[in-house]
Design brief:
262 residues; alpha/beta; Rossmann fold; six-stranded mixed β-sheet; two-stranded antiparallel sheet; 12 helices; 8 strands; 40% helix; globular
């Protein structure tokens, strides 16, 4: 394998993970695909590894169909599979807190991390600081753009503005991909609660539903994840310090929500 080819490990085979695999498959034979080599793919039931490269579509067939015999985490196996040299990228398409807590350790070993999970940098200040320190010390990147608004380019825009010397005083907008979908599709022709129920259907093909029943769109997520892998030789984004607060009132019930919208 050429030193310019990045080895990729994928954790997770839900809607986002499968979309990543299909995108990698679609890129095979192109200049983008030739720069990425999938060597490891796993969910909690099955791990697939081939140093010479895995077939993304075969992984997309095998991983979801694996029997739920013994659930386990394969994040340590993923790092070992990536080896110790060259460009190495871990894609976290899970909603697993333990996997997210291990990102700083992966970065410390020189592995780039791209994630669609908010838990790594959005729950603990100490963990966020550990991630930032590992990136700075090892010259690696932490791709977290897919965690905001299901892939809205908010983080990149904020970091580029700060890097250019601008001061951000306030941010207002819908930061949730779920709410953005709801507001986009609400036209007052039906109750808002009916739209929410449709959104929460486990069989819906529009969204990715995690185990906590919080839903998010997967299309922009997997685009951000794969784009992050392709572009990982650029400069690291700057740090931004600004306070975020909700400008919407607390809504105790769906009925109250409908009254506000009406």
């Amino acid at each position: 394998m050429s030193a310019d080819v990045a080895r990729v490990a994928l954790l997770g085979s839900g809607t986002v993970g499968l979309a990543v695999l299909r995108r990698l498959a679609a890129w095979q034979g192109s200049s983008l695909g030739d720069g990425l080599q999938l060597v490891f793919a796993a969910n909690t039931r099955l791990a697939l590894f081939d140093r010479a490269g895995l077939d993304p579509l075969q992984c997309a067939d095998l991983l979801p169909a694996a029997q739920n015999v013994r659930r386990c985490s394969h994040r340590c196996d993923a790092v070992r599979a990536l080896g110790s040299e060259g460009i190495r990228i871990l894609i976290d398409a899970t909603a697993d807190a333990d996997t997210a807590a291990n990102h700083a350790a992966c970065l410390s070993e020189g592995v780039h991390v791209a994630t669609a999970c908010k838990l790594a940098a959005g729950t603990s200040l100490d963990q966020w600081r550990a991630i930032r320190a590992a990136c700075a010390q090892n010259g690696v990147g932490f791709g977290d753009r897919a965690t905001v608004g299901a892939g809205l380019p908010l983080l990149r825009s904020i970091r580029e503005l700060c890097a250019g010397g601008d001061t951000i005083h306030a941010i207002a907008g819908v930061m949730s991909g779920s709410l953005a979908w709801l507001f986009h599709n609400f036209d007052a022709s039906r109750p808002f609660s009916e739209l929410v129920q449709r959104f929460l259907q486990p069989t819906s093909t529009l969204l990715y539903t995690c185990s906590t029943r919080r839903c998010r769109s997967c299309l922009q997520m997997h685009n951000c994840l794969v784009a992050t892998c392709v572009s990982w030789r650029g400069s690291r984004a700057g740090e931004c310090k600004c306070a975020l607060r909700s400008f919407a009132p607390a809504i105790p019930s769906m009925a109250a929500a409908e009254r506000i919208i009406e």
